[in-house]
Protein: Ammonium transporter
Organism: Coffea arabica
Amino acid sequence: MALEKVTALPSGLKPGPPYPDWLNRADNAWELTAAAMVGLQSVPGLVILYGSMVKKKWAVNSAFMALYAFASVLICWVLWGHRMSFGTDMTAILAKPNEAMSQKYLLGQYKEYFLPNADYVLYQFAFAAITVILLAGSLLGRMNFYAWMLFVPLWLTLSYTVGVHTIWGSGFLETRGIIDFSGGYVIHLSSGVAGFTAAYWVGPRLSHDRQHFPPNNKIHMLGGAGFLWMGWSGFNGGSPISAGLITSLALLNTHLCTATSVLVWLSMDLIYYKKSSVIGAVQGMITGLVCITPAAGIVDTWAAMLMGVMSGSIPWYTMMILHKKLAFFQKVDDTLGVFHTHAVAGILGGLLSGIFAKPNLLRDFYGSGTISYGPGFLYGLIEGKKLEGFYQLLYQLAGAAFITVWNAVVTSLICILVSRVVALRMDEEDLEVGDDAVHGEEAYALWGDGERHPPPLRFNMTPRIPSFCRRH
């Protein structure tokens, strides 16, 4: 549907730049806004969250890992990552890394949507960046920063692009009709599995750091979490690539599921530990956001609330109970519990999508092309399409299995390769000191140019009695 151009303007106004008939300025503006919101989740969102959620001596290093990844991913994504994900098929799991910076491509129409390719490149870059930064949450407090500098472009190229192409870029999972509205598998399952795998290869923090790792600023931590939550409006709201009805439903479901998850997580803490936890509230927020992501615009609101109940309880159980009991989890030092908040919650959301996906919403989002989506297993039972609903659930399981295995294997190979060039883990001496040893900087400089505060002067507070009052 082409937009009509304005031919007459009020007196004194000059016409703006020309635009093609296929461009819908409302959709274009919304997609650019959504891309900016997803970017803000990383910078400053996760920069602040990571910098404040770790021990004080690791605040600078943790925030810097996120900032570096954001910049590095942008370069790699524009040069080759986007086209490897969404370009012409080279194999069933990867596209050709064709050049993506030409004006002809960037200013051309994106498929049948009413916005240019440049919008979608930017939006998907923000997705790629936050995936790598989420992965970093498993590695905080001990990974060699120079190893991280090599790891980021390698992982983006060899692991992330494959997940994107197989599920969103006409790869073999998309052609089977797998449901992933906004990245439950592509982003969260992959970051959770890859982070856990990389944490195994990098090795643990110092034992006393692992046992005692308090946040250095909980108020800033809540601020970073707030950027993450509010930015998720762009995360899930940008996936329909338009400012339409599905977008509205996706936003409402996102926030409703998240709020429910927060309350359920806090309730579990109160029942089990007899007190609520600020960190627990943040974890419950994250699991709610992750769980609804693959289903945001294709489930009813009641289903979104039910998903919030499950995302606030099942990951809570795996993190707070199972993690402490199973030797498998104890062997790997996952600093911020990314495996539980993203891998577990991502799989949960993907499977629940295969159960609660509503047929008419699937048609509205995916269209009525050659690929068949759904119905969800529940609606398959209701509508007498049990086999179709069962197959959809199997496709969701198959997608989770592929993303898990691919990320575990490729992340391991990348870590082994990087370790041949530079040590994955910092020296023991640097681990004792932290930021000052690694970057020559500290998070909280009390005065001067990063200088340490001198020891306080000690005053004798005993009252002095004048000599003429003393008794001899």
